[in-house]
What we know:
This is WD repeat domain 31. By secondary structure, this protein is mostly beta strands. It folds into 2 domains: 121 residues, 7 Propeller (Methylamine Dehydrogenase, Chain H), CATH 2.130.10; 176 residues, Methylamine Dehydrogenase, Chain H, CATH 2.130.10.10. Helix content is 6%, strand content 49%. The protein has 2 helices and 31 strands. The strands form 8 sheets. It has a 5-stranded mixed sheet. A 4-stranded antiparallel sheet has the order 2-3-4-5, with no helix packed on it. A 4-stranded antiparallel sheet has the order 6-7-8-9, with no helix packed on it. 47% of the residues are buried.
Amino acid sequence: MGKLQSKFRKRSELYRASQGEKADSTFDSQVVQYEPAHQGSISSVTNLSPDLCVSGGSDQAVVVYDWKQGRMCQSFQGHNREVTKVVCYPGSTWIFSASRDKTVLMWDLNQGDEPIQEFCGHELVVNGLAISPDGRKLCTGSRDNWMCLWDIESAKCEQRHNISRNLVTHVCWVPGSSSIVQTSEDKTIRVWDSRTWQVTNTFPAKQYIQTHCDVSPNGNYLVSSSNGFGGQGCEATLWDLRQPGCKVVEYRGHLQTTACCVFIPTPPGGTAQVATSSHDSSIKIWDQNTAVCLGTLSLDGAGPLVYLAPNDSNNLLCASFSNGINHIQVGQGSNQAQGSGAGSGGAGGLDIKVLARF
Length: 358
């Protein structure tokens, strides 16, 4: 990785020279500062392709960005309030964005800068957004307590279900399945059957609001995260979906709300890992099965770290409230902390660092 890091350092120096900036720390001098994707805080980021990511934020824009080349490809304008969630359909150029304006818009990177579909019907902010594995259906969930199932081609709402106090925070479609998992401000996790649009399982309520969830690629496990403060709550929990409600392990160590939790792609022969990001401005990577913290990266001044998008086992994107999107590299390292940049590993000694910011 030496050549790659040297290349990034040179890019950083060129950028700073052109901007008249002076590096004020060893850490900052090694971070490439690209053109910002957004003006303001970022709410969500996801992968469109190995090179392209999609993000949404308080500036109401949906941005497609080439994070490897450091350039903006497209900025979609259509929402009139903050974009809360963005998702993409794998292998396509389809993008879906949810917003505080109560709508979901569908975009196609190859079909101009106007939305190609609009999904209207919610009465409050839409926080949950998931596409069926076959790309035909869209699931949305809102703080209005409604879970909705839409036909993508017609934008028609085919199913609706309202559950009292089910203020939806996130939605995941289980890979290769008809099941959908959602988290809620009522501290519970629900599993839905998309064929009957009924809840098939409700997990035991946690002590705190459930902020986010992710399903493992094989569909066997679910990880959810909790809000909290002062280290109370603030955990992520691994559940076995084959035994609904069966808690496997908990990942504890964040001091404030754990905003996001994701499974990291596992390389052949590698250790299964989970990543979490928190309002305490840190990212932690955990051994999925033992819950040992393998490394921590603190991004001082970045504010709440609200969303993670793993690209592969060594690279992930982190959306922050105050510091744009950070390209994080994960590798086996020397455990040497370096300001607010290099991660210090626990057992396992992962080296976690910021390569670029945009």
